[in-house]
């Protein structure tokens, strides 16, 4: 290589927050043009983990696509499977028994708490505090153990089937879930004292990374990103599906538009999910978990079907265009993180790199979901 | 001026609260299980790779219908069978009937996603999930399981 | 004549051995302490309680290949880790562990320690610039501005104490605090009512000078991969690591001598070297405790803390003490 590079004042240099980096959770590359510590322009480069899930949806029969959905966003896998199963049930006209719907809601909310716990740990680790990650993972282990006793998997569940569930829950699950809820509430108080009230942490996040409601609408951001900007939109309340109308829960919305608001939205969402789980366990009806008449081969009539669900990261939409055969004609996945991520380029101009990485952490990105 | 000092004071207070929490956690027991010196028992429904179930005679219950092979999204299962004649008494007459006997049942675990479509689609209750989690190897061939072989090894 | 030289040589060798042993086994203590705070065991496989982990790590680091990136400034790249380690070890020569246990007692002991401490900042700059790596340069620049900003309140606080006791000799500083906890410089006295605040300021500055969390921007792992020592493998990294822990021991010793009465017992009964060691290790435990509890500050938060909060308060303390010394 030649001699030292001379950078004139006012000239920018390119820094690759490359595919291999501890702070970008997954393989994400951001080409940043930096002026000292300030970002002049950022360009996100995606596609390092494109695995062609949408094409796989076209090549396989409907039941054979089920494992793919868990691999999209592996931290909140049940939410995505729920969306897929609801879409196909709507397309093929399959009735779901009530007990199955309640169990689906309970497990989805448990998965949401687990996903938010992991986000919390990884986010604070990005900012430099390594200990809350360990505490969050310990709490998450309880959830994973519970779900493993029922479904057999810990991360990529293939539990829901078209019409209901693969196998039923037993009393042990109900007892463990009931014991988990007060434990988790205690942990949330601990995280409040350890992290949320901490002055170093607040100074890192207060006023950093403003994303206005206008910017959210422009890029189509949903989920905690939009709710931290003051937009009151939650698919479970605005376009209800499954048994969510039966539950009594709030949707946390904060107006400040900065990273601390998004953080607070997710912490409050964990508490609301615990409320839903409590109510679900109380109202759980008896009955079968699969419908009596289930078609052997699922061939939805030709048409265009869409279903949106609220996952941990935003509104996940799945659109199935069927032409009457046993494979889908078009299998489109609307990934919430893709829309959330597209904000980043515009939002991080003029920030210092530390703040930009704090902003990226507060967006809660899971890269395999962007690239599908 | 007052805000300056009160911010410093409240900041120091929050730092002290945080320190108190980690100090209490210092004295709590360790959560980690020292694997491999101690292992945890897997839950009943844990999904390891599939295994053949045997009937009372010791032969596999599988009738080689091929439903599992067709249901698998990744094409992991490959099986072969042969036709065997057997005699049965029907209304006093001896008739020869044919039935299929399993000769080969291979599972390519490198592409399996543990979805459970095979176990669910089997009408004869012939396959189930094992509890194997301790699989690590340097070669791909170690994960091409010959399930019929494994069944015989378990029986002997 | 030769006996005195022999004494000095033995004393220096023992000081170096103490520094090296501490640097190695403090890594073990930090990993076990961090493990317990995070509810996990820490190293416990190599040897009983994991005590053979530091030699195992040292052996591993020594047998790795030392890679010098092409285009790196070779002289700076190779000198930097040595420059990080040597001043810390040399400062051990003046620190009095007890009345009779000191390698070489100097009349300007305080000044010598601070002179050597400033060399540490240069080592970071050499490492970052010499690696020819954008992450390294950014981290080195941050670390240097941090080092400079936090030396100032540290020195102002030390001047306050030197004014009160009238000597820069470390042994006499401790002798002035003998006789029990009520004589220690930590507690407010008539001529200096804000002494606990000065202790806090000095504590925070020690954390910042040694690049420990929450001020570890130089090696901000989650943002800039590994900061100024990104390009170092093998023994270069090992020397940086050991230099950091040696610096921590020096910092803890300095706090003990200046504020906590050195080798004196809290009840004033049996002064001995064991009290000194106990106090150092309690302070080091608190450094470890603080590192694993708090997240990292931003660069402007850090500089704001120093220039807008620590320096005004320590200057005010200095003027107050100077004024009250005239009165009392």
> What percent strand of chain B?
25-35%
**Termini gap of chain B:** 85 Å
- The overall pLDDT average of chain A reads 88
First and last CA, distance of chain A: 39 Å
Strand content of chain A: 5-15%
How many β strands of chain A by DSSP? 8
Helix % of chain B is: 25-40%
CATH architecture of chain A: Orthogonal Bundle
Give structural notes:
The complex is a heterotrimer of chains A (372), B (156) and C (328). Chain A is an alpha+beta fold and 372 residues long. Chain A has a single domain (54-371), classed as Cytochrome-c3 Hydrogenase, chain B, CATH 1.10.645. Chain A contains 14 helices and 8 strands. A 3-stranded antiparallel β-sheet of chain A has the order 1-2-3. Chain A has a 3-stranded antiparallel β-sheet with strand order 6-7-8. In chain A, helix 4 packs antiparallel against helix 5 (131-151) and helix 4 (98-126) packs antiparallel against helix 11 (259-283). The model of chain A has no long low-confidence stretch (mean pLDDT 88). Chain B has a domain at 50-155: Alpha-Beta Plaits, CATH 3.30.70. Helix content of chain B is 28%, strand content 25%. Chain B has helices spanning 2-26, 67-71, 117-121, 147-155, and strands at 50-52, 77-90, 93-108, 127-129, 144-146. In chain B, a hairpin with a 2-residue loop joins strand 2 (77-90) and strand 3. Chain C is mainly alpha-helical and 328 residues long. Chain C has one domain (65-327). In chain C, helix 1 (2-37) crosses helix 2, helix 2 (53-62) packs across helix 8 and helix 3 runs antiparallel to helix 4. The longest helix of chain C has 36 residues, at 2-37. At the A-C interface, helix 4, helix 5, helix 7 and helix 13 of A face helix 5 and helix 10 of C.
